[in-house]
Amino acid sequence: MHSFIPPQRTLLGPGPCNVSDRVLEAMARPTIGHLDSAFVGMMDEIRSLLRFAFKTENRMTLPISGPGSAGMECCFVNLVEPGDTAIVCKNGVFGGRMEENVTRCGGVAVTVDDDWGQPVDVVKAEAALKAHPGAKIVAFVQAETSTGARSDAAELCRLAQEHDCLTIVDTVTSLGGIEVSIDEWGADAVYSGSQKCLASPPGLSPVTFGPKALEVVANRRTKVQSWFLDLNLLMGYWQAEGGRSYHHTAPINLLYALHESLLMLKEEGLEAAWSRYESNYELLRAGLESMGLSVPVTRGDHLPQLVTVTVPDGVDEAEIRTRMLEDHGIEIGAGLGQLAGTVWRIGLMGQNSSPETVRLCLDALKASMRDAETA
Ligand SMILES: *Cc1c(COP(=O)(O)O)cnc(C)c1O
After folding, report:
1. Is 4 among the domain residues?
2. HSE of 57 in the Cβ direction (CA atoms, 13 Å)?
3. I want to staple 328 with a disulfide (CB 3.0 to 4.6 A). Which of 33, 267, 314, 364 is the partner?
4. How far, in Å, CA of 155 to CA of 137, rounded?
């Protein structure tokens, strides 16, 4: 056996995306103790950079040690108690996982179902809130990575507040790529992931909790079923006054990486990053359409960081993905769930949202489709 040397890939799937040399170098710096004061100082900077990225003043903002799914569980296990009703908006795979989280916490999930590829229908969500006046939570995914559709987070949060509900918002694919404004929306519990538009390696899940959510956690009737994700215990490690206590060993080098990638986002500026994503989306979309391919999500409901493309009739979608990977070193995503076999998903995240990468992708896709036809 030898050391593992990964092949060179351009990662244009639904995440992870390519991690820049600058972030990889940060991650390769020496490991120090997770209670070392130098490390604790860096943790404080990460929390302040996350507040910047989420556009929030929430004190309880921190990266959970684990992938986006861990941040998702953290929000649900802390806020949902047995018997609680949660309205779960479902327009793709990740809404389905929210429903699963609610029921595993002993809650009752009332689903608002929308077609895949469509945003959450605000009118239907409002009807569900009216029909279930005792509901405690509204949960939805801002950027559905399984379909490429974006929902109106500001409006859904406003509706939830009007009905005295807390919101749980999935911003795993949105954070860093499109506008996320936690305080302006008044969102209560929000989670994200390190490997999508933040362009860090996978393994960390930024979360932020507002004051109303923390009050609900503090007044629970039952203990949080997960010891690892119990916010009351995590707070002791991340924000104890006068010294931190051991909770778990933080993934130290991954946190160096997240710190560096957040610094890069801050240097670029949020608005500048969002407009870069938008202009490269337009380039990709124009190129796909000029090849005769169709992009099913309507402009306005689209995600600039994740573009769903309809596989044309008679084309073997898996063969094209294999050719892209083996002949061109480019990974694109397959359809998930209902959309398996019928779409490709092209992600332009982190530094991959660039005109050069769009050109590389379009050229490789053209060549792969031509080669598949003549094979
Ligand atoms: C990727 C993703 C997740 C899950 O994140 P993991 O890091 O894979 O656990 C959750 N929600 C959305 C919208 C995602 O795109």
Report:
1. no
2. 4
3. 364
4. 15
pLDDT per position as a tens digit, 266-316: 999 999 999 999 999 999 999 999 999 999 999 999 999 999 999 999 999
In ligand 1, the atom with minimum distance to the C-alpha of 71 is: 9
- Could you tell me the distance, in angstroms and rounded to a whole number, from the CA of residue 292 to the centre of ligand 1? 30
Q: What is the DSSP string of 338-367?
A: GGTTTEEEEE--GGGSSHHHHHHHHHHHHH
159 and 280 belong to one structural domain: no
Q: Phi/psi class of residue 96: alpha, beta or left (left: φ > 0; alpha: ψ in -120 to 50)?
A: alpha
CA of 336 to the centre of ligand 1 (A): 13
Domain finish residue from 214, 232, 266: 266
| Cis amide linkage into residue 16, ω under 30° from 0 | yes
Domain of 354?
10-14+270-374
The reply to whether 246 and 275 lie within a common domain is no
Question: Is the Cβ–Cβ distance between 116 and 93 less than 8 Å?
Answer: no
- Residues in contact with ligand 1 by the CB-under-6-Å rule are 15, 67-69, 72, 94, 141, 143, 145, 170, 172-173, 193, 202
